[in-house]
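On clarity, I found the account of how folds are encoded harder to follow than it need be. Since the whole study asks how a given chain folds, the encoding of that fold should be made plain. For illustration, here is how one protein appears when written out as sequence plus structure tokens:

:::
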Amino acid sequence: MLHRLYEWTLAKAAHRHAEWWLIVVSFLESSFFPIPPHPLLGLMCLARPNKALRYGIICTLASVAGGLLGYAIGHFLFEAVGISLLGALGLTESFPKAACYLRDYGAEIILVKGATPIPFKLITITAGFIGLSLFTFLWASIISRAMQFVLVGALFWKFGAPIKVYLERYLGWITAAFAVLVVGGILAVSLLGGGTGKAGDKCSGATMEQIVGAK
């Protein structure tokens, strides 16, 4: 099933309405679609490097907009839709820990997510469930998504198709380094403000019952 969805997604890169498919996939992936937009974005950038930066921006904005749907599901429809959705996506066990970390660190977790393979849909649904500030959710999501999508688009736009080899090899390191710089500054401010830094111990053993009961 996932393989067929993946092949279907890749096929949209050659479609005459590829930009609209990029918007659709990026939007839906932020709340429930299992295939990320990265392969589609990469193929589109490879085919038309002169439009790569545009594609990266489109992908970022659509993903953040879709994140609002995930936020709404977590905030308003968690019991009716969210629980079943997390189960279908295989994210039920990850949810309690994500909720715990988001409650303690907020924006830092969303920013770190930009340099990791953590599904963005897990973050969006969880942020809505815990009632994370919508403003915080939006600005952190924009930076997090841009660290992946706009960066890819900018590199293809600047260097053209040959950058593909280097992206495949070093993109993880590039986004991780950028995330460390951003989050490091935020954590420094937090520590100066008297943060405890003990969330890791508490969150590693978080359970669904604890998280739901604490809402």
Remarks:
- Confidence is low (pLDDT under 50) at residues 185-196.
